[in-house]
Description:
This protein starts with a helix and ends in a 15-residue tail after the last helix. Among the domains are: 61-127, no CATH class; 138-213, Alpha-Beta Complex (DNA Primase, Chain A). It contains 7 helices and 10 strands. Helix 6 packs across helix 7 (204-213). By secondary structure, the chain is α+β, with helices and mostly antiparallel strands. Zinc ion is lined by residues 161, 163-164, 166, 170-171, 182, 184-185, 187. Zinc ion binds next to loops.
Amino acid sequence: MAKDPAILAHQEWLGYVQPSGLVVSIPALIEARAYVNRNISPDHQRFLSALPSDRDGEPVPEIANFPEFARSVFGWAPEDLYGAPGAPALPETLEAPLPAYGETLRPTYALHDFQPADPTREWILLIEVLPTGTDLDIVAVMETMGVSLTRLQSGRFVALCPFHADTNPSFSVTPGKGLWQCFGCGVGGTAITFVKRRLGVSSHVEAVAAIRELGLWPEADDDIRKTT
Ligand SMILES: [Zn+2]
């Protein structure tokens, strides 16, 4: 039996809609111009042109000058990036002393909200700039914290998940991306989220401090550099 083309079109878009309680037709969304603009090419070009190039003219995935990158790619006003040249110095209130570890955490830059809705929350983002080639070693962090990882030929690592009763390794780590995921219990994230979960803390600062204490946080004065 032939179906009405209008009904077919209707069923087609229904297949794209999640059952979340609100259904809006795609023609209505387009009419309201509420669709994702996939033309990200200009943004992409702006991003690439802000990166340094290698000898072959290929962009190098490295941000050599963060204030300049933030200005040209994100359009941030130079004076909003505290700690950057031409901007105010970082206030001491952004320092987090860690007496137990005998050190103080401080950002390299901080993005100030020029019109904070809540005066106690005037900082949007704290940024720590690390030297090139000192990626946080997610495998070293996990192994030091008791996860027994096995390297697969693909370069990925697997292990028994430390967060649920795992009998078949469902815990997967992709060091190149600095990410992990458990396909058994569904948790995942970065090295920082791993440490938070492992130690049962919610504070980013505490997780960073713990990684520093293990001697695994990339230090600005390290001369460990990739030679490539
Ligand atoms: Zn798990």
